[in-house]
Amino acid sequence: MLEIMSKKLILISSLVLMCITFTIVMFFANPQIDGADGLGVIELQLSFNKEAGIGIIQNWGESGIANFRQWIFTDYIYAFAYSVFFASLLSMLILKKGKGSSLNYTWVVYLAFVAGILDWMENTMELIFLNNPIDFSSSLFFFHSIVAVLKWSAVPIAVAYIVILLTKTNESRA
Hints:
Layout: H1 2-5, H2 8-34, H3 39-45, H4 50-96, H5 103-131, H6 138-167
């Protein structure tokens, strides 16, 4: 898998798609949803309490909820793009640094994909929540926030590995 993901075409195309969708999600879609700076979407992700979640979406109003439904596809694309980008960059660096046989490094490539899958799970649970927030399970809402925390934790771990790989010298040269 490292060889496939380390292709420059995958790296560059996923970077471009990630940048485009990041811009759309963070500077266009999310502000249209919460009617402010867009942080209301992140607040929903990390609220853990269904009643707090209901309060958040009530503050969005009907137009904000409609905007969420209309623009959520961009977050699915963004999750795909960043997971492929991080997996591709990590694969490239792991191979370049001669770490392809080391589980200490290769597992993080899969973590990049796990982050994207967790993002998709979170988005799907939020869509279901918006359809019927009153009857939505409090436990499932709590689980949704745990999924969001795991996603938000996986991305910095991947970035940390990128930094580590960028600062390491090739062991094969030594």
